[in-house]
Structures are given as C-alpha cells and as structure tokens.
Specification:
Distance between the termini: 16 Å
Structural class: mainly alpha
Strand content: under 5%
Largest sheet: none
Number of helices: 18
Helix content: 55-70%
Radius of gyration: 24 Å
Length: about 375
C-alpha cells in the first residue's frame, strides 16, 4: 500500500543530526524512507517476523515488570479478559473463520473490536472479496462507538482516497480523534502534521507530546523523531542523554537511522559513555542494512583500527560501497589509493556483489 505520512515532512522541519566528530566530520544521516501504513489490526505473526531483538552491551535493558504488594508480577489487564477468538483466527490466517466469528460477535454482543476486524477483512480482501465501501462502513460503526483503531483506519482511507475522495482535512480529524484515545500510530502521524505546519500551525511542543505517546508505546520511528527534537532542543529542552536513550531503544527495534545516530553518540561519547567498540558494532549493523553513512563510518573504523581491528580489505570494501551510494570521503580515497595493488583488488572483489546490486536497475 502507498505510504501514509512521510517522514520527509519531519526532517524538512527538524535539522538532521550533526555529523560525528569522528570517524568522519561533515556528513549527515540520510532521511529514513517513508514508512508503510500500519493497519489498525496487526498482521498475523510468522516465524520470519518473530526474531528476537538484538542484544548489545551498550544497549539499554528492557524494564522489569511491575510488582504487586504481594511480590507477584502484575498481570496485564488483557490477560484477564476473555480471549478474542476472531482475532486469534485472523492472526493464524484463518480469515473465513475470523469473518464468521467476528460477524457472530457483532450480532450477539455489538462487539466494537469485531466491527473493526470486519473492516480490516473487507479492506484487504482477506477470505472475502475486497470492498472498500463495506470496510469503511464497518470502520465508521466502530469509530462511532469509540474504537481508536477504526478511527486510525478511517484516517488512512481519507488520506488515500479509498471509499471516497482524498481529504487530508478529514484524515487529520480522524487522526486527532484516535490520538486523543492514545492510539500510538495516530499520535505519530499527527505529530508530523504539527511539524509540517500546513494543516495545523507549526507546533514542535505539541509534536513532541504526540511523539512521546507513540515512543512510549514502542514505535521506533517516533523514538527516532523525538530523539531528534531532544538533540536540537525543539519543542523540548535540549537533552542529549534523553536523545541517546531514545536512539538506543529505536536501534534495538532495527531502526537503521537510529542505529547510525546511536553509533555516532557512542563513538564520540556524546550523551553516553564513550564506547568505540560498541559504536563499530552498530555501524556494522546499519551498514548491512544499506546505510551509506554507516558504511562510511565503518570503513573509517576499519582503516584506523579504532573500535575494531584494522582491516584494509574490509575498509576498502565498505568505502567503495558507501561511495557508490553517494558518500564522499577524501580521506578514505587517499587511504585506498595508498594501499598496495593486491589489497585494493581484494577490497574491490569483496565490494563487487554490493556494487552490482546498486547498479542493477530496479524491477518495473
């Protein structure tokens, strides 16, 4: 599906993170790609997307569960409710069963969550013919009864022009309604609108409040964006330690841009204890995800031996890859040119699969 509200609006208004003092000055992290729309009902889990979060000595540990006066871990409220059989069937991919159970739940109990689920099934054509009109009807019924997920779905429909004309004003209205009820993705998108300053007056303070809702719910994009505001002191008091904490959380959730920022902070000891080895590990992770900034930083580390053992072949490899992606680094150009022919050739050979992939035209 088409992207919802692009992060380009955010980063056009908020200065991007300053470059590292080392290993390379004067470069900036690139803008993250526009995120894809988050559906109001989570997609069913698969073995492929259930990988554990990466661990790292420099990364923050997960908070401990709350404990009652009796000393037992407090059970979440959701565990005390009756299981949602329709949603369970949806998550396992039994869409016809989910449709039947949700329909029954609506008929017998006027179940609001079941209404939203029916909207989801119609919206994506899961087990039943795709029908935007019917999806919108179910979403509207659930939204009228106070379901924030349905409100968020309607915001996306209005933004995309599904089941009616595109209407950013109506989309913003539904985002605001869902955000009031604590919907994290609605809060995130609404924050971008306040930063963009077109539908609403530009307000970084309000944007920070909304980003905090989404960040506390674990949204890595919101964590990254809020960290940027803390770094620049926009809408919040400047606080590099808080910025680094948020980048660390987003890094654990595999946000590549946050991994670059976190690595820069660790390498320079800015807002966090200096740790060049940990920085190198985060740069490597982001480099493998395709970040040209991280690839360049990693090449410098491997060229100088600060943060990882010196490795001229790998340094050449990552420099050539980052350069092919648009990064300019005259120091590394000179470094590679100073190497003997055999070392350069080995680095070029190691980079070739990446360079071939970069040059390959995208499929139409």
């Amino acid at each position: 599906m088409a992207a919802a509200l692009a992060l380009a609006a955010l980063l056009a208004a908020v200065p991007r993170a300053a470059a590292a003092q080392s290993p390379q000055p004067a470069a900036e992290p690139k803008r993250p790609h526009a995120r894809k729309i988050h559906r109001p009902v989570a997609k069913r889990a698969t073995a492929q997307n259930a990988a554990p979060a990466p661990s790292h000595p420099a990364a923050p540990s997960a908070p401990a569960p709350s404990v009652t006066a009796q000393g037992n871990a407090a059970a979440p409220a959701a565990a005390q409710r009756q299981p949602d059989l329709a949603y369970g069937a949806f998550q396992r991919g039994y869409f016809l069963t989910a449709f039947a159970l949700a329909t029954k739940s609506v008929e017998e109990k006027s179940d609001v969550k079941a209404m939203t689920l029916l909207g989801e099934l119609y919206a994506d054509g899961l087990g039943i013919p795709q029908d935007d009109g019917k999806a919108a009807e179910w979403y509207k019924l659930a939204a009228a009864r106070g379901d924030p997920a349905a409100m968020f779905a309607l915001a996306m429909f209005r933004l995309q022009g599904r089941a009616g004309p595109r209407d950013r004003q109506a989309s913003a209205k539904w985002l605001a309604e869902a955000a009031k009820l604590g919907h994290p993705l609605a809060a995130y998108d609404l924050a971008l609108l306040y930063i963009e300053g077109q539908l609403f007056p530009q307000d970084f303070g309000r944007a920070a409040e909304l980003l905090r809702i989404a960040a506390q719910a674990g949204n890595p994009e919101a964590q990254y964006a809020l960290a940027t505001l803390y770094k620049e002191g926009r809408g919040v008091a400047k606080d590099m330690r808080e910025a680094v904490r948020l980048w660390a959380l987003a890094s654990l959730a595999d946000n590549t841009d946050a991994q670059v920022e976190y690595g820069i902070a660790l390498y320079n000891g800015d807002g966090v204890a200096k740790n060049e080895q940990a920085a190198a590990a985060w740069f490597r992770k982001a480099a493998l995800h395709g970040s040209a900034i991280a690839q360049d930083r990693l090449a410098r580390i491997l060229a100088t031996g600060r943060g990882a053992p010196e490795n001229p072949v790998e340094a050449t490899k990552w420099h050539l890859i980052s350069r092919a992606r648009g990064e300019t680094d005259l120091m590394l150009d000179d470094y590679v040119n100073s190497l003997d022919a055999a070392t350069r050739a080995a680095g070029e050979k190691a980079a070739k699969p990446w360079l071939d992939a970069i040059k390959k035209p995208p499929k139409s």
